[in-house]
Amino acid sequence: MTTALGKHGLEWQEWILRNLSRQCTPHSMFERMVSRVWTGADAAAALDAGLAELGMGQVWRTPLPEIRLSPDGPVKVLGQLERPHAVLMDGLLSRQECLELIAYAEH
What we know:
With 107 residues, this protein is mainly alpha-helical. It has 4 helices and 2 strands. It has 2 domains: 10-53; 63-107, no CATH class. It is elongated. The N and C termini lie far apart (61 Å).
């Protein structure tokens, strides 16, 4: 059975443990991992496992902010991006609010 840390073989497992031991930041390691063969979820799980194995229980992931939908009416989420974090919503602003925002941006 493959663990999160060993998902892509012994070479990656050793790389993760060696670099965490050297105090490389999990964020920089994550970027390199996902640019190669790792998915974001697998890379995060492997880094968490590596930190736990080394007794370095630091919290390195920052949760995304909670997006509260309008209590005034339905808001439809049309799409989301993780990097950068963005959410495209329909029906969030009224037509008048949109016009005011556009006018403000133009001045």
